[in-house]
Amino acid sequence: MTGDLTIQHHPAGELPDGRAVDRWVFGTAGGVTAEVLSLGARLQSLYVPDRDGRRANVVLGGTSAEDLLGEAAYFGATVGRYGNRIAGGELPLDGKIHRLATQKNGHTLHGGPDGYATRLWSGTEVRDGDRVGVRLALHSPDGDQGFPGALDLTVTYLMDSAGELTISYEADTDAPTVVNLTNHAYFNLGGEGSGMVLDHLLQVTADQYLPVDRELIPFGPPEPVAGTPFDLLAPTGLGGRVSAAHPQIWLAGDGYDHTWVLRPGEGLRQAATLRHPGSGRRLDCLTTEPGLQVYTGNHFDGGLTGPGGSPYRRYAGIALETQHFPDSPHFPDYPSTVLRPGERYRSTTVYRLSAE
To answer: What is its EC number (predicted)?
Structure first.
């Protein structure tokens, strides 16, 4: 997957209000190539060769601005200010309850109904040694979706010639707040629109996971994965797990929509490996985050058609969201997501693409 790195900047249409959307395409000819949009600081496509050198886009995506502002809003997007759920839209912080914007279920998901996935970010081309990519910036004002404190944040995508895509997040605030950013790409290593991911093998470096209630919100401390369908310490076929007879699988709609508690460690460490035996494509996910939310697309219903022309039905893709834990403001024992003035939020995730 080696070759000369290139980057191109193109217009990508307009939003309904007339604002222009930008796109950057970068990577190596014949190798791994990423496409990033300014709308939602979004990974819109990711082309990866299989074991025979045939390239395919391995992430799901929308086909229009209407899609990306609606049903496909989270596809490949940077979600925040708080990725995942905050129960009841209530944020306790320093003795005060902040009322957040909520979705129809009464909880705050991925930063609220107008979170960062629907925002237009400003982007700048970046060359960093042997890597090339784009840095996107956003200002989130005090009170944005109910969150306290103004937040200035950047998301940087960088690709190297070996097919390693690094996503780095940074943020600072002028008042105490919470920050939990992640990328919401859905992967299908057989190729976008090629069918279900049930033939994929998933391995997660975690001895514990967080059980959830009917609202998919954790209700207590982590529990061991041993003896449950959440034991993914060895490469495991997804097909057998989404049909497992387990209450937590049923709660999520016959599949995963859960956080795994990654083994602790300093710096980047292995979170997960996703393999597609049919093509040989492999994705290794490394992160500095303490958790990995895995969602197997249990609720896709065919109502959205991808860029390849195929409708996205159940299990069309799998999300591997590196992040802190859901609803951590309500659980003092969970790793803290509080950011204070003078501190710098930093988080890094690496997607290492290869074929075997």
So the answer is: 5.1.3.3
